[in-house]
Amino acid sequence: MKAALLVLPLLGQPAMPVSDRMPVFNVEAMCRDVSADDKASGLALAQDAGECVRDETLAQQQLSSAWLTVPGPARESCEGEAAAAGIPSYVDLLTCLQMTGWANPAPPPAIPLRGASKMRNAKN
Predict the structure, then answer these.
(1) Model's pTM, two decimal places?
(2) 89 in any annotated domain
(3) Could you give the number of structural domains in the chain?
């Protein structure tokens, strides 16, 4: 085990604490599940899986440019919030960081992102 840890820096891979890595969410599977659940529940604003993936991908792209500028405690707190209820969402993660004042992409998207956010069916 120790030998493997020593080899990584020699292979040119940066030694990076796990908290510095942006979380990896399986948005395709998650969006399919969320869309199916919305439709099965008869929600009037059921999220289309394709739109969900698009929203989650846009949020992920916005996060990737700001992730390392956000202090570790804010990243950890928002990551926990975004993964709450077993539905990890980049839209929720980005929203949390925006609310704390750390991730403010410019300009905002023309269409509000819903993705798989737990708040996707809340009235604005």
Answers:
(1) 0.67
(2) yes
(3) 1
